[in-house]
Structures are given as C-alpha cells and as structure tokens.
Amino acid sequence: AGFVSSLYYTRFGGEYWILNIMTTSLTFIGPFSLIAGSLNFIAYSYGSSSTVPFMTIFILLLIWGLVTFPLTVLGGISGKHIAEKYPFTFQIPSRVRPRELRKKVPWYASSYFQITFAGFLPFSAIYMELFFIFASVWNQKLYTLYGILSLAFILLILVTGMITIALIYFQLNAEDHQWWWRSYLCGSSIGGFIFAYSFYYFMFKSEMFGFMQIAFYFGYSLAISYVAALILGTVGFFSTFSFVQYIYSNSKLA
C-alpha cells in the first residue's frame, strides 16, 4: 500500500509525501481500530466472553508498529524514488489554451449523481448474495454457495470498473479534467449502499435485541462497508486511470 500510494501520489505532483505515507498507514487501521476498540469496550462492560484480552490487543499493535508500519514507510520511500526516476511520459499535443472549469454541467455529469449512481449498479449485482451472507453471519444459517459468491465478486469488480469509466467519460466530455478523486468516490460509494442495506436487514430480516447485540451488528457492518469502499474505490481509480491514460496517449489532437 505504501509503495503504490507514494508512487502515484508523486507522479500526480504531490509534494507532501511524508503526510501521504502516514495517511496510507492509518487509512485502514485507524477507523478499524476505533470500531473494534469501541465494541471491545462494550463487550467488557457487559462481561461478555467475546472480549478480546488486553495482551492480545497489545501484541496486535506491536505487530503493526514493528512490521506493518515500517514496511509501509519503506514502500512509500521506494515508490517516491521510482516515481521521480520514471515519471509519467505521455503528453497530449494541443494548441488549445487551458480554460477554467465549467461552473454548470449537465445533471448526469454532476458529482452527486455520479457518485450515487456508481454505487447503485454494483450493489444491485450483489444484492441477493449479500442477503445470504448476512443470514449466514447473523442468523446462523449455513452458506455453501461459494462458487456463486466468487462469480458475484468478479462481477462486482467488473461492474464497478466499467460504470466508473463510463461516468468519468461523461465528466471529461463536460470539460472537467479533475477525475482522480471522483473516480475513487464513484467506486467506493457502494460502501454506503452496503451499510444502508444493513439497516434494512436489521429492521425486516433479523430478530436482534439488546444494546450489545445491536452495537456489534452495526459496528461490524460499518467495518465491512468501509473495507468494501476502500477496495472498490481502488478498483474504480485504477480502471479509470488505465482508461484515461489510453485515450489521451492515443489522442491525435494537434
């Protein structure tokens, strides 16, 4: 993560590479630790056997501090040096002068529509499998369709990449070249749909009660949604990056 993050950050002209490495190190472990720590405190308050011992938490933090974090920093430094040695080389010949971004864009090119719509289609591709996964985890029902689950995951990756590319194409046609963060947000928006689905499942499909059980349900659902957002946001960015690099490196404008 540190290598890839620093590589592309530097190639995109970023200057605060140390801050980028620190952000990369904490992007996953920070929110996940906050959620896990809060749930563990609740379990400890109720005297539950699901409480994680303090020594186990200390060992996990020690592993992160002595292994994961140094490797992320090392990868970040390596990525920065490689990016400086091998920067982006494709250029677009053009006589058109740079222009300001258009303040008014078509509704289908607005960021709100694109980010929302980009998460809806991938979510619809995994809706049924998501129900069986929730039922297996929270209602103790046996799940055996792992082959279909693998196909659904592959379909999710493909749909996320293609819908993000299509929406960013509309954005570029609207003369808005700042596609990088929107491509990531378009891919990661499915995390919001997954978390919203957890409310639907809780209200209509589950029989949970009690503060501790509800807290664990929504805490783990939030963590899963966040992880899905990180993964699919990355898919959306790299899919769009490959598309943009291809179309502009083969541009015949002069």
Radius of gyration in whole Å, from Cα?
A: 22 Å
Q: Count up the helices.
A: 8
Q: What is the average per-residue confidence, as pLDDT, rounded to a whole number?
A: 83
Instruction: Report the biggest beta sheet as strand number plus sense, adding barrel if it closes.
Output: none
The tally of strands reads: 0
The termini sit apart by 38 Å
Secondary-structure element order, as H and E? HHHHHHHH
**Would you tell me the structural class of the helices and strands?**
mainly alpha
Low-confidence stretches: none
Shape: globular
Explain this structure.
- With about 250 residues, this protein is an all-alpha fold.
- It is about 75% helix and about 0% strand.
- It is built from eight helices and no strands.
- It has helices at about 1-10, 15-45, 55-85, 110-140, 145-175, 180-190, 190-205, 210-250.
- The longest helix is centred in the C-terminal third of the chain and has 39 residues, at about 210-250.
- The radius of gyration is 22 Å and the shape is globular.
- The relative contact order is 0.12.
- The model has no long low-confidence stretch (mean pLDDT about 85).
